């Protein structure tokens, strides 16, 4: 390779344009082959770097989100359920609710697609530039209770607090004690009017009170969650049961 190109590559690296540095010989070859103008070459270089950065940023945010699995809205079959019409799904996909800090509550028995839908929306949000954090209620309580003495938990809670969309999966699969309800309130209060929350639960909000014990805290949590909210009731047959493979 030409010495000047090597020098240029190292200068690109110094300027922290690492991806472009690697790609420079190819870009220059192409420029020669199809006789790009100077402007076209410069444009190709900046496009390349910006696209790479965008890709990397999406990758980073995907990791940060910690989804339990990768399932997109494309894979969510509207015909397999009756809670959302094609139009409603498209509306959710447009993410206006997220831009306006609305919360979503997805209710329904196991297997109806609550987690899939929340992950699909999360992936969509990441692709549109938002920061997303996925956590189950069980994990969240664990993180909250250990953050005082575990650096790892502290980091995770910080990420959650810095996210535009927080998905809390399986909200009320277990009863909380007073301390847990308090910690949970603090999270909701922090996120209130700052981020959107997607909650999934197999119990309706009327039943949440019982599980949180303390009526005052329950009211305070519900006030914030339900202030700006869209509730999607996903009742129907379990997709898992309908599509399971029969052994016999
Ligand atoms: P839950 O409501 O218990 O959270 P999940 O979202 O985990 O259920 O769905 C269970 C399984 O069924 C997942 O593998 C999910 O991808 C699939 N599933 C559920 N609903 C649909 C749907 N409408 N279209 C495609 N797959 C679905
Ligand atoms: Mg689930």
TrEMBL record:
Database matches in Pfam families: IstB_IS21
GO MF entries: ATP binding
Coiled-coil blocks: none
Listed InterPro entries: AAA+_ATPase, DNAC/IstB-like, IstB, IstB_ATP-bd, P-loop_NTPase
Keywords: ATP-binding, Nucleotide-binding
Family the UniProt entry places it in: Belongs to the IS21/IS1162 putative ATP-binding protein family.
Name of this chain's protein: ATP-binding protein
Source organism of the structure: Niallia nealsonii
Native organism taxonomy: Bacteria, Bacillati, Bacillota, Bacilli, Bacillales
């Amino acid at each position: 390779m030409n010495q000047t190109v090597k020098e240029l590559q190292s200068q690109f690296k110094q300027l922290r344009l690492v991806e472009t540095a690697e790609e420079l010989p190819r870009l220059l070859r192409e420029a020669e082959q199809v006789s790009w103008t100077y402007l076209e070459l410069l444009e190709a270089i900046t496009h390349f770097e910006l696209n790479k950065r965008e890709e990397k940023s999406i990758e980073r945010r995907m990791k940060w989100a910690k989804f339990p699995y990768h399932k997109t809205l494309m894979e969510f079959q509207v015909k397999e359920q009756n809670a959302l019409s094609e139009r409603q799904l498209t509306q959710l996909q447009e993410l206006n609710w997220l831009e306006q800090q609305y919360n979503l509550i997805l209710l329904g028995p196991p297997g109806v697609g609550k987690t899939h839908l929340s992950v699909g929306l999360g992936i969509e949000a990441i692709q549109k530039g938002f920061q997303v954090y996925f956590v189950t209620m069980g994990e969240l309580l664990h993180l909250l209770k250990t953050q005082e003495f575990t650096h790892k938990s502290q980091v995770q809670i910080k990420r959650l607090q810095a996210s535009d969309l927080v998905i809390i999966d399986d909200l009320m699969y277990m009863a909380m004690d007073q301390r847990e309800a308090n910690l949970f309130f603090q999270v909701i209060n922090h996120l209130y009017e700052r981020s959107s929350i997607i909650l999934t639960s197999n119990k309706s909000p009327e039943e949440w009170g019982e599980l949180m014990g303390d009526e005052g805290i329950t009211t305070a949590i519900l006030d914030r969650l339900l202030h700006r909210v869209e509730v999607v009731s996903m009742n129907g047959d379990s997709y898992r049961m309908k599509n399971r493979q029969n052994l016999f």
